[in-house]
Specification:
alpha+beta; 4 helices; Jelly Rolls; 434 Repressor (Amino-terminal Domain); three-stranded antiparallel sheet; globular; 2 domains
Length: 211
Protein backbone atom coordinates (compact mmCIF):
# COMPACT_ATOMS: atom_id res chain seq x y z
CA UNK A 1 0.00 0.00 0.00
CA UNK A 2 1.34 3.42 -0.95
CA UNK A 3 2.01 5.62 2.09
CA UNK A 4 3.59 8.49 0.18
CA UNK A 5 1.65 11.61 -0.74
CA UNK A 6 2.96 11.20 -4.29
CA UNK A 7 -0.04 10.36 -6.51
CA UNK A 8 -0.04 6.80 -7.80
CA UNK A 9 -0.55 5.72 -11.38
CA UNK A 10 -4.15 4.75 -10.64
CA UNK A 11 -4.87 8.01 -8.85
CA UNK A 12 -3.58 10.05 -11.78
CA UNK A 13 -5.56 8.03 -14.33
CA UNK A 14 -8.73 8.38 -12.26
CA UNK A 15 -8.17 12.13 -11.87
CA UNK A 16 -7.70 12.57 -15.63
CA UNK A 17 -10.79 10.47 -16.38
CA UNK A 18 -12.91 12.55 -14.02
CA UNK A 19 -11.41 15.75 -15.40
CA UNK A 20 -12.79 14.73 -18.80
CA UNK A 21 -16.14 13.73 -17.33
CA UNK A 22 -15.77 10.09 -18.35
CA UNK A 23 -17.06 7.02 -16.54
CA UNK A 24 -15.02 3.86 -16.05
CA UNK A 25 -17.21 2.29 -18.74
CA UNK A 26 -16.44 5.17 -21.13
CA UNK A 27 -12.69 4.76 -20.60
CA UNK A 28 -12.86 0.99 -20.94
CA UNK A 29 -14.75 1.26 -24.22
CA UNK A 30 -12.49 3.97 -25.64
CA UNK A 31 -9.29 2.12 -24.71
CA UNK A 32 -10.49 -1.33 -25.76
CA UNK A 33 -10.04 -2.70 -22.24
CA UNK A 34 -12.55 -4.18 -19.80
CA UNK A 35 -14.31 -2.26 -17.05
CA UNK A 36 -12.77 -4.58 -14.47
CA UNK A 37 -9.28 -3.99 -15.84
CA UNK A 38 -9.65 -0.19 -15.73
CA UNK A 39 -11.06 -0.41 -12.21
CA UNK A 40 -8.10 -2.50 -11.05
CA UNK A 41 -5.62 -0.05 -12.57
CA UNK A 42 -7.30 2.93 -10.92
CA UNK A 43 -7.18 1.15 -7.56
CA UNK A 44 -3.53 0.17 -8.15
CA UNK A 45 -4.39 -3.52 -7.95
CA UNK A 46 -3.06 -4.25 -11.45
CA UNK A 47 -0.11 -2.71 -13.27
CA UNK A 48 -0.78 -2.17 -16.98
CA UNK A 49 1.63 -3.08 -19.73
CA UNK A 50 3.07 -0.27 -21.83
CA UNK A 51 0.59 -1.18 -24.59
CA UNK A 52 -2.37 -0.89 -22.22
CA UNK A 53 -1.04 2.32 -20.72
CA UNK A 54 -0.67 3.75 -24.22
CA UNK A 55 -4.27 2.79 -25.06
CA UNK A 56 -5.54 4.37 -21.84
CA UNK A 57 -3.50 7.53 -22.41
CA UNK A 58 -4.87 7.90 -25.94
CA UNK A 59 -8.41 7.44 -24.67
CA UNK A 60 -7.72 10.18 -22.12
CA UNK A 61 -6.28 12.47 -24.81
CA UNK A 62 -2.81 12.62 -23.29
CA UNK A 63 0.63 10.96 -23.36
CA UNK A 64 1.95 8.03 -21.35
CA UNK A 65 4.57 10.16 -19.62
CA UNK A 66 1.78 12.09 -17.87
CA UNK A 67 1.30 9.03 -15.65
CA UNK A 68 4.93 8.03 -15.02
CA UNK A 69 7.39 9.37 -12.47
CA UNK A 70 10.35 8.70 -14.74
CA UNK A 71 9.31 9.00 -18.36
CA UNK A 72 12.30 9.05 -20.72
CA UNK A 73 13.58 12.53 -21.51
CA UNK A 74 13.56 12.65 -25.31
CA UNK A 75 15.38 15.28 -27.33
CA UNK A 76 15.30 16.44 -30.95
CA UNK A 77 18.71 15.72 -32.46
CA UNK A 78 19.83 14.57 -35.87
CA UNK A 79 22.56 12.29 -34.50
CA UNK A 80 22.34 10.10 -31.39
CA UNK A 81 25.30 7.97 -30.34
CA UNK A 82 24.63 4.55 -28.82
CA UNK A 83 25.82 5.69 -25.39
CA UNK A 84 23.35 8.59 -25.42
CA UNK A 85 20.10 6.70 -26.05
CA UNK A 86 17.29 7.12 -23.56
CA UNK A 87 16.25 3.69 -22.25
CA UNK A 88 13.04 2.65 -20.58
CA UNK A 89 11.46 -0.50 -19.14
CA UNK A 90 8.41 -1.21 -17.00
CA UNK A 91 10.23 -4.01 -15.17
CA UNK A 92 12.63 -6.94 -15.40
CA UNK A 93 10.12 -9.17 -17.22
CA UNK A 94 9.09 -6.41 -19.67
CA UNK A 95 10.84 -5.29 -22.87
CA UNK A 96 13.65 -2.75 -22.68
CA UNK A 97 13.27 0.14 -25.13
CA UNK A 98 16.23 2.09 -26.51
CA UNK A 99 14.80 5.22 -28.08
CA UNK A 100 16.31 6.57 -31.30
CA UNK A 101 15.61 10.26 -30.93
CA UNK A 102 13.37 12.21 -33.35
CA UNK A 103 15.55 14.50 -35.43
CA UNK A 104 13.17 17.46 -35.52
CA UNK A 105 9.96 18.77 -34.02
CA UNK A 106 6.75 17.15 -35.31
CA UNK A 107 8.68 14.30 -36.95
CA UNK A 108 6.25 11.68 -38.27
CA UNK A 109 8.50 8.69 -37.56
CA UNK A 110 9.52 7.25 -34.23
CA UNK A 111 12.04 4.46 -33.80
CA UNK A 112 13.46 2.30 -31.05
CA UNK A 113 15.52 -0.83 -30.52
CA UNK A 114 13.53 -3.22 -28.36
CA UNK A 115 14.99 -6.05 -26.27
CA UNK A 116 12.21 -8.64 -25.81
CA UNK A 117 12.59 -11.25 -23.03
CA UNK A 118 12.01 -14.96 -23.79
CA UNK A 119 8.35 -15.90 -23.50
CA UNK A 120 7.11 -12.31 -23.49
CA UNK A 121 3.87 -11.74 -25.41
CA UNK A 122 2.47 -8.30 -26.11
CA UNK A 123 -1.21 -7.47 -25.97
CA UNK A 124 -3.27 -7.18 -29.13
CA UNK A 125 -3.46 -3.55 -30.17
CA UNK A 126 -4.38 -1.35 -33.10
CA UNK A 127 -3.84 2.33 -33.77
CA UNK A 128 -3.36 4.78 -36.61
CA UNK A 129 -0.29 4.74 -38.83
CA UNK A 130 2.26 2.14 -39.90
CA UNK A 131 4.69 -0.26 -38.23
CA UNK A 132 7.97 -1.49 -39.67
CA UNK A 133 10.03 -4.12 -37.86
CA UNK A 134 13.53 -5.42 -38.60
CA UNK A 135 14.56 -8.35 -36.40
CA UNK A 136 18.19 -7.89 -35.41
CA UNK A 137 18.60 -11.13 -33.46
CA UNK A 138 16.58 -13.98 -32.01
CA UNK A 139 13.21 -15.27 -33.17
CA UNK A 140 9.80 -13.61 -32.99
CA UNK A 141 6.24 -14.49 -33.89
CA UNK A 142 4.12 -11.58 -35.11
CA UNK A 143 0.37 -11.88 -35.57
CA UNK A 144 -1.24 -9.28 -37.83
CA UNK A 145 -4.98 -9.40 -38.50
CA UNK A 146 -5.06 -13.02 -37.34
CA UNK A 147 -2.22 -14.19 -39.61
CA UNK A 148 1.01 -15.48 -38.02
CA UNK A 149 4.37 -14.28 -39.34
CA UNK A 150 7.39 -16.03 -37.75
CA UNK A 151 10.62 -14.08 -38.19
CA UNK A 152 14.27 -14.92 -37.69
CA UNK A 153 17.21 -12.52 -37.56
CA UNK A 154 17.32 -10.40 -40.71
CA UNK A 155 13.59 -10.68 -41.39
CA UNK A 156 11.32 -7.66 -41.79
CA UNK A 157 7.63 -6.92 -41.38
CA UNK A 158 5.70 -3.84 -42.59
CA UNK A 159 1.98 -3.39 -42.00
CA UNK A 160 -0.83 -0.94 -41.34
CA UNK A 161 -1.12 -0.31 -37.61
CA UNK A 162 -4.90 -0.12 -37.98
CA UNK A 163 -4.90 -3.93 -38.19
CA UNK A 164 -5.00 -5.80 -34.87
CA UNK A 165 -1.47 -6.96 -34.10
CA UNK A 166 0.66 -8.51 -31.38
CA UNK A 167 4.03 -10.18 -31.01
CA UNK A 168 5.62 -12.95 -28.96
CA UNK A 169 9.15 -14.18 -28.33
CA UNK A 170 8.90 -18.00 -28.57
CA UNK A 171 12.63 -18.52 -28.17
CA UNK A 172 14.95 -19.09 -25.23
CA UNK A 173 16.96 -15.92 -25.73
CA UNK A 174 16.26 -12.20 -25.72
CA UNK A 175 15.14 -11.06 -29.17
CA UNK A 176 16.23 -7.65 -30.42
CA UNK A 177 14.19 -5.74 -32.97
CA UNK A 178 14.39 -2.36 -34.65
CA UNK A 179 10.93 -0.80 -34.72
CA UNK A 180 10.02 2.22 -36.83
CA UNK A 181 6.51 3.60 -36.81
CA UNK A 182 4.23 6.58 -36.52
CA UNK A 183 2.93 5.77 -33.04
CA UNK A 184 4.27 8.17 -30.40
CA UNK A 185 4.12 6.61 -26.94
CA UNK A 186 6.02 9.34 -25.08
CA UNK A 187 5.97 13.05 -25.77
CA UNK A 188 9.17 14.76 -26.83
CA UNK A 189 11.10 16.44 -24.02
CA UNK A 190 8.91 14.66 -21.46
CA UNK A 191 7.81 17.31 -19.02
CA UNK A 192 10.46 17.55 -16.28
CA UNK A 193 8.22 19.87 -14.25
CA UNK A 194 5.13 17.66 -14.37
CA UNK A 195 3.92 16.13 -11.07
CA UNK A 196 5.71 12.83 -10.46
CA UNK A 197 3.68 9.63 -10.43
CA UNK A 198 4.66 6.54 -8.47
CA UNK A 199 4.66 3.32 -10.51
CA UNK A 200 6.43 0.46 -8.70
CA UNK A 201 8.76 -1.47 -10.99
CA UNK A 202 9.24 1.32 -13.50
CA UNK A 203 12.83 1.82 -14.56
CA UNK A 204 14.27 4.75 -16.44
CA UNK A 205 17.84 3.82 -17.29
CA UNK A 206 20.59 6.34 -17.78
CA UNK A 207 22.37 6.49 -21.16
CA UNK A 208 24.68 3.51 -21.52
CA UNK A 209 23.05 1.64 -18.61
CA UNK A 210 21.38 -1.76 -19.02
CA UNK A 211 18.81 -3.51 -16.87
Amino acid sequence: METSTTPTLGTRIRARRRELGLTVYDLAKASGRTVGFISQIERDISRPSLASLYAVARALDTNVDRFLSEAPQRQHQMVTHSSERAKFSLGATEPLYEFLEPGFADAALNACITHIPPGFASEVMRHEGEDFVYLISGTMLYVVDGVEYPLEAGGTLHFSSSLPHMSRNPGQEVAIELWVGTMRVFSDNARPNAPSISLPGTQQLQPGETS
